[in-house]
Amino acid sequence: MKIIKTGSAGTLESSDVLITVRSHNGKGVQITLSSTVEKQFGNQIRHVVLETLKQLNVTEAAVDVQDKGALDCAIQARLIAAVHRAAGIDKINWEEMR
Amino acid sequence: MKDRLRRTMLYVPGNNTGIIRDAAIYRSDSIMIDLEDSVSYRQKDAARLLVYTSLRTFDFEGVETVVRINGLDTPYGLEDIEAMVKARPDIIRLPKTDCAQDVQEASRLILLEEKKNGLPEGSIGLMAAIESPLGVINAYEIACASERLVGIAIGAEDYVTAMKTSRSADGIELLYARSAVVTAARAAGIQAYDTVYSDLNNEEGFRREVELIRQLGFDGKSIISPRQIKVVHDVFTPSVKEIELAQKVVEAIDEANAKGSGVIAVDGKMIDKPIVERAKRTLEMASASGVLSRKEGRYHA
After folding, report:
1. pTM value?
2. Domains, chain B, with CATH or none
3. Is B177 in contact with B129 (CB distance < 8 Å)?
4. What are the chain A neighbours of B86 within 8 Å (beta carbons)?
5. Do B17 and A74 touch (CB under 8 A)?
6. What's the structural domain count of chain A?
7. Which of B50, B82, B116 sits opposite A77 (nearest CB)?
8. Using the 8-state DSSP alphabet, how is residue B75 labeled?
């Protein structure tokens, strides 16, 4: 999936995460993370972001993650929404969703 | 699935992570995660994804999961069904149902997705909310429209607006619609659920409304806050007096049946078939509410 513009999803409410995806052409994936639980869960959050990008075939993107203690499933949901918005794709391919 | 206890259906906004995560801890009978009115148009995609990943992740500990989708006449309804069948809530709730075809179309689309996902036909139940004068007029044909349907609900806000009135304390403006919906549900052999009560600070008014809808015959009510759960469960739980009388009736009829005698009396009143049925339902409700347990075919407090 190709990122063509800036797309965000999520909120800064407790237990949620605000994810912004921007194009990062030719420079791979870059994750910027700020989290209320970074010390304990920073690596786990990065892992979820990388795995989800892989499932979506996103190889080039700048991903800004502002986490307020979101669980993995919320991070996945927000990232998938942000990527689709940033790729200009309205409909999810549900058959390929895990 | 059809006859499950559904006294309380707690609304949960579909785009709120924390509320979805915690929704089961309050022990309503069902939670109703909403993709419709509580989600703005610009967040429909994000909410659908969040509900999808949440349903596939969280254990709701026996609390039934219902998802209220957007209407099939909106740009969102179709994709809601595609995503939600794959997410596997117990029930999909269709809003603004005006006629039998609305239910049949939703049921057909759910079936297509069930097949696509290798699920047995009928795995996902369906509820239909009636929210218009036309829907009320068509309540019986709606209630009979699909084998998948477990119940119909009355949604009052749109209905009273269309009726050119507003909601009042005693609910007189809803008397016909409530009666029509619950009668249609009973005639079709499915459940009936009442609309929300929005004034969270008026507990007395809320209790009166719950007593009214229980008396009308409803199975339960949609609620907007965990604070409303206890009142509904209290009202729907039979009293000790009701349980004692029901036990006497059931014991008397058992004894009469064993002796082969026909007419019986309890406390000087003749007991016939409808009274026995009501007594059995009282004991079932008491048992389902956790105030009675059933052992060896008899109920124990």
Report:
1. 0.93
2. 8-236 (3.20.20.60), 240-300 (no CATH)
3. no
4. 94, 97
5. yes
6. 1
7. B50
8. S
